[in-house]
Design brief:
TIM Barrel; eight-stranded parallel β-barrel; 16% strand; globular; binds pyridoxine-5'-phosphate
């Protein structure tokens, strides 16, 4: 019997286009509806301290309109925890944030569980929000995450994604195996395993082949494809690839 993987569609880039003109459209709330119609199992947005794409209005409206599952990526700061308290997404993914970065550059460092991070996990769990942490494929990070009471990890697939687009199969497989090994380690530790960052229609099947990965969060490449064929169809095409 075939199994399909949970597809979380990251719609930040719809808001990026809106913010490029400080306009009202395109609206990520409308995009979420289309993504769900195309088969998205969840909607993911990242609210950053500079509000360069997603803002509070978006998170609040998405929280009231998303019918599947709302995952909000954020840094573990006081300001962001207040937004979570106010908007009550289903899940929060804690990510690192560097103001000048173009996109999230790497996983969180959870080794030694900095106090702020551990407190954020407790606070979110008390709000009945499940908690995920975005981690590089490093066994030490997985072991540390298992200690701090998170429900899920999301493995950073950026390194795999980058080499996969170079036509060099050797390095691609090395990076794929790193993801597979930590996915298994996290699964054995009782954590739900997601992955994402930089995944495309070309490289996603390498992640689908990893049995422990039950969720993929994909944004930029779906939105890029949507500019040619429409968001609903772009999501449907990606969902069709997430079968094993
Ligand atoms: N997961 C996390 C934690 C992210 O920060 C991002 C990018 O916002 C994604 C997944 C999606 O990455 P992409 O847009 O490259 O598909």
């Amino acid at each position: 019997m075939s199994e399909t993987i949970f597809l979380g569609v990251n719609i930040d880039h719809i808001a990026t286009l809106r913010q490029a003109r400080l306009a009202l459209e395109p609206d990520p709330v409308q995009a979420a509806v289309l993504a769900e119609l195309g088969g998205a199992d969840g909607i993911t947005v990242h609210i950053r301290s500079d509000r360069r794409h997603i803002n509070e209005r978006d998170v609040k409206l998405l929280s009231g309109t998303v019918k599947t599952h709302l995952n909000v990526e954020m840094a573990a700061t006081k300001e962001m925890l207040e937004i979570a308290r106010d908007c009550r997404p289903d899940n929060v993914t804690l990510v690192p944030e560097r103001p000048e970065e173009i996109t999230t550059e790497g996983g969180l460092d959870v080794t030694g569980a900095p106090e702020q991070l551990a407190e954020a996990v407790v606070a979110l769990r008390e709000m009945n929000i499940t908690v995920s942490v975005f981690l590089d494929p490093d066994p030490a990070q997985i072991d540390a995450a298992a200690e701090i009471g998170v429900n899920q990890i999301e493995i950073n697939t950026a390194a795999y994604a980058e080499v996969s687009e170079t036509r060099k199969l050797g390095p691609t497989e090395v990076e794929r195996v790193k993801v597979a090994e930590v996915a298994q380690r996290a699964h054995v530790a009782g954590l739900r395993v997601a992955a994402g960052h930089g995944l495309t229609y070309r490289n996603v099947r390498g992640m689908v082949a990893i049995a422990e990965i039950i969720e993929l969060n994909i944004g930029h490449n779906i939105v890029a494809r949507a500019t040619s064929i429409g968001l609903e169809t772009a999501v449907r095409e990606m969902k069709a690839l997430l079968v094993r």
